[in-house]
Amino acid sequence: MADTAASLAVLTLVPKGHGVVAAEYKVNFLEPAVGDHVEARAKVRRYGRTLSLVEVETVSVADADGSETLCAVSTHTIMRLEPPKDETAQT
């Protein structure tokens, strides 16, 4: 979940047609995810031409009172992928 949130956060910043892939990530698990649902919140800390650094907080949420428990904190290095070259284009 955290990896997906990190990748999608960077994907909102890359030019149209480019893709992204996780190059590296580290997750620190803090508490069990006990609650009604889990949310991953990503923040792009550095957006680079090739690599970007993203921090993600994963929380469990109790629907009854909206209380949140921080379950994990992670850092992700996301690599931008160039769009595929048109094989029919002449050079």
UniProtKB/TrEMBL annotation:
UniProt name for this protein: PaaI family thioesterase
Matches recorded under InterPro entries: HotDog_dom_sf, PAAI_dom, Thioestr_dom
GO molecular function: hydrolase activity
All residue ranges annotated as the Thioesterase domain in the record: 1-58
Hydrolase recorded as keyword: yes
Record-linked CDD domains: PaaI_thioesterase
Organism superkingdom: Bacteria
Enzyme Commission numbers on file: 3.1.2.-
Enzyme's top EC category: hydrolase
Keyword Hydrolase carried by entry: yes
Keywords, in A-Z order: Hydrolase
